Amino acid sequence: MVARARQERDGSRAKLLLFGLTGLAFWAAVFGVAFRVLRYIHRVADIGDLLAGKVLGVILLAFLSILLLSNIITALSTFFLAKDLDLLVAAPIGWFRFYLAKLGETVVHSSWMVALLALPILTAYGMVYSGGVLFPFVAVAALAPFLLLPAVVGTIFTLLLVNVFPARRTRELLGLAGLATVAMAVMVLRVMRPEQLARPEGFRDFVEYLAVLRTPTSPLLPSEWAAEMIMNWLLRVADPWPIVRLWGAALVAVTIGALVHRRLFYLGYSKAQEGAKRKVRRPLRGPLAWCLQAVAPSQREFILKDLRLFFRDNTQWSQLILLAVLLMIYIFNIKTLPIHSGERIPFSLVTIISFLNMGLAGFVLAAVAARFIFPAISLEGRQMWLLRSSPLDPVAMLWSKYWMGAAPLLVLALAITVLTNWLLQVSEFMMAVSVITIALYTLAVSSLALTFGIFYPQFGSENAAQIPTSFGGVVYMMASLSLLAAVIMIEAFPVTTYLRASHRGVPMGPTPELLLTGGAVLALLSAATIIPLRLSARRIEQMEA
Amino acid sequence: MIQLTDLTKRYGKFTAVDGINLQVPRGELFGLLGPNGAGKTTTLRMIAGILRPSSGSVLVCGTDMRKSALQAKARLGYIPDRPFVYDKLTGGEFLRFTAALYGQEGPAVERRMDELLELFDLTPWKHELTESYSHGMRQKLIISGALVHRPDVIVVDEPMVGLDPRSARLLKDLFRSFVDRGGTILMSTHTLEVAEVMCDRIAIVYRGKIAAQGTMAEMRQQTASGELSLEDLFLKLTGGLRERQLDSVLGL
């Protein structure tokens, strides 16, 4: 066990390095975009500074809403579900010290991602506005209470909820409510078509535009105070009020939070220990079991088991809501493209958009496979002892997992490809290229997702939604997107040949070059399907639980 | 029924199990004792086909676990030390799934499931998700799972942990009746009284090797231990705490 742990530690260094490099690249990209946009805004006469402050306020407001949701969910874990709680509650630790320690843990767990994202953005502000050497301290002084406030609100809200519902049921409710809120917000935002707001003719005159800029977006929220505090420093404005509001509110909030904790924590903690008894109303047998009658009992029950686990676990099926919303937005975007709105659009443009749409669909499918197929083996987790000690053929288990993921993904892939191509009114040639490519690519990404999931399992993870963000998940996404890029690059040749032929009005025949590129795509995607599955079969037979 | 030959498991440079040779015939309840980290669980997991031995072989009912794993596993029921089950399945579904893994289904299996659930007082919980089960209930469920397909051999790791006295007694009687009917059980335990009362023969594993094995009388003879109890014999073979160390820990 010790030697195995040491081996794993060596491997984790390489993972850390790769994660570090990926993070650095992402950080640099965010910084680059923020810096360019800010430099442009800064140069806009009269309203540049106002616009920069407004943008910062909106960014921090977005962060605040994410933080509120994330803090409620995190506080539930740190205050009521964490494994160290039995030890800490039994230890002679004062209630206030306990509260501060757990609050600190909540802030760190819920806010590190937001803090990391804020870093390049604030760095860009500091550089564009020449914030000076003291600017990082000002930024930290503004961010600290800004991160603390939603954490306190989250802990208070969680304390109240746990005193009403059982802790585990509260987590499920919160997860669902959070997801539904995000999905609805994204949907509403997209259907509002915000791109229309960027049109200057949307405002009656400049004064109205300026009035909108001068009005604080949300004067009673800490995001506005933090934005004001930072912008005051950058614009050399001596106004202590944002600092007083921000720090004063943080102090008051922590005090109220501590008092609520003192009064309600032990009651809620006792309640959280009670299990929520759940009877199953829909055992998922009958018609489905009848459909699978031809399958061997072990594989049939295995498939039924996977379906039961999926539909009974809110953290899993609820992701379908988000997926549905994202797909609706994707189709909405294609539908609202101004290419068939009356004026004559060149045939070549439609073909190019359809070709690029294939890439976009491929990306969506790779992401869906990461979310639903990559965790398939990891989710067996601690129950792997049962499968490995039973006479279930590991290769049969692999095929079951593969088709359980690939079949619905294939239906989804064909549906979105045919629908979006129909909306784009593409030619038969492009329809055929897209459908065949996407079908083959779907089989390949399903294979890749399952394989990377087998080679990088996360048996300890209790939340299926967190598994794709692991090292293996990131490597899988890189591999599947590289495959997509390779396919697109190869297929660019027949598509341009087709465009040239159409331009000249010459019918395109099956030239050797076209057959060669078609064969190359077929070979590449077949290899990307078969080789990983073979490696998986070998690996799963040797897998130790 | 179970035959281990030079069974070894290495993790890098660390050897967890070091050339164990053991034979457990039909109709015997064999106990594996040893301190924490001695290699008992690793040995049992290799017999169950969960871990692959670095070298050596495991035969279950004459079938080689490496060469014909599926046939060997079909004869075996494994009960792990920690009762991890699928939280989102009911007790009944878990047992049905376990039986199906062994290729069994139909009314006979349903009857068998009901018998086992009744035996372990789990009938009222049959349609409840296992996430609401206590540790002991989960333990009883996985014991039922190991018995549902009527195995010839049971490999069980720390069976008494988490069981109430009534269930522990029930399990003792169940195991005894299983071996009396010709079944074979290989059991690891820390509870020396349980081993002394239940097991026909015992092996003490220490640092991946078998330090002594046989009946109590044979082991006393092997180690020239006179009339020592199993506890004293165990401490003699595995090294107990010295009085000086206890004094320093307790601050006396």
Please explain how this structure is put together.
The complex is a heterodimer of chains A (545) and B (252). By secondary structure, chain A is mainly alpha-helical. Chain A folds into two domains: 15-272, no CATH class; 298-336 and 347-542, no CATH class. Chain A has 19 helices and no strands. Chain A has helices spanning 2-43, 48-81, 85-90, 95-128, 135-162, 167-191, 206-214, 222-234, 241-272, 287-291, 297-312, 314-317, 319-335, 347-372, 384-389, 394-424, 428-455, 471-504, 512-542. Mean pLDDT of chain A is 83; it is low at 1-7 and 196-200. Chain B has helices at residues 40-47, 69-74, 91-101, 107-119, 135-147, 165-180, 192-198, 216-222, 230-238, 243-250, and strands at 2-11, 14-24, 29-33, 55-60, 63-64, 76-79, 153-157, 184-188, 201-206, 209-214. In chain B, the strands form two sheets. Chain B has a six-stranded mixed beta sheet, sandwiched between helices. The longest helix of chain B is centred in the last third of the chain and has 16 residues, at 165-180. The model of chain B has no long low-confidence stretch (mean pLDDT 89). The chains are: A mainly alpha (545), B alpha/beta (252).
**Secondary-structure-derived class of chain A:** mainly alpha
Strands across the major sheet of chain B, in which order?
6-7-8-3-9-10
What's the CATH superfamily of the largest domain in chain B, by name? P-loop containing nucleotide triphosphate hydrolases
Report helical residue fraction of chain A.
over 70%
Count of individual helical segments of chain B: 10
How many beta-strand runs of chain B? 10
Portion of residues within helices of chain B: 25-40%
| Rg value of chain A | 27 Å
* Number of DSSP-assigned strands of chain A: 0
> How many domains of chain A?
2
**Mind describing the biggest β-sheet of chain A?**
none
Number of domains of chain B: 2
